[in-house]
Amino acid sequence: MGQITQGLAGFDCSTICAGGVRRVWITNADDVDSYTFGVDGEVTAIVMVVGPPAGVFYELEFKVNTKQFQQAVNMNEDGCGATVTQTLTGIASCYDQSKRTSIIEMAKQSCCGIVVIHQENSGFVGVWGFVEDLYARLGPGTATDTGANLSDPNQVTIELVCTTTLDGLLTEFTPGTGGIPV
Questions:
Q1: What is the spatial distance between Cα 86 and Cα 72, in angstroms, rounded to a whole number?
Q2: Which of 3-17, 53-67, 108-122, 158-172 is least confident?
Q3: What is the DSSP code (8-state) at residue 173?
Q4: Taking the model in full, what pTM does it have?
Q5: Burial of 27 (0-12, 13-18, 19+ CB in 10 A)
Q6: Direct distance between the N- and C-terminal alpha carbons of the chain, in angstroms, rounded to an integer
Q7: Phi, then psi, of 55 in degrees rounded to 5
Q8: DSSP 8-state symbol, 167
Q9: pLDDT tens digit sequence for 44-81
Q10: What are residue 89's DSSP bridge partners?
Q11: What's the CA gap between 166 and 163, in Å, rounded?
C-alpha cells in the first residue's frame, strides 16, 4: 500500500521559478554502466562504460528560449496503474549537414535508447530516460522548416520522447564535484 507524504505541504506561493530549459545533454543508454541513487531517490552519480569508445554525454545546442520539457502522469481508469510521458523539444538554427548527421544518429540510437539530462532555468538538473528498456527516443515532432519568406527562420526542431513508469519520473541529478560525464 502506498503512503502520502508531506510533498507540497511546504509550498510557498511567493516562490517563482523561471521557466524553460537552459542546457540539454544526451548519451546512448548502452554507454551507461550504472546509476547511484541517494536516500530520496535522486541520482547522485552516473558511471559510464570504460574503454574505447568510452561513454560520454553530448550537449545539444539549441536557440535560446526554445527548449521545453513536459511530463505527464497518465493514470489507468481504475487508478491502479500509471505511465509517464516525457517530451523535450528544442529548436536549432539553420539545417545543415551536421544537424542531418545528428538526427540520423539519434534516430538509429532510438532502438537501443537515449538517456537525457537537462538543466532548467530554475537551476534544477534532472535525468530521465534511464529506466532499462524504457529509454528516451527521437520523437515524431522532429522536423526541419525552411520557412516561406526570406525573413522566416530556417530551423530544425528536435523532439525527444520517453514513455516510462513512475520509477522513470524526472529525477533530480546531484552529481556533486563529479559533474556531468562529458
A1: 7
A2: 3-17
A3: B
A4: 0.89
A5: buried
A6: 40
A7: -75, 140
A8: G
A9: 999 999 877 778 899 999 999 999 999 999 999 888 89
A10: 68, 159
A11: 10
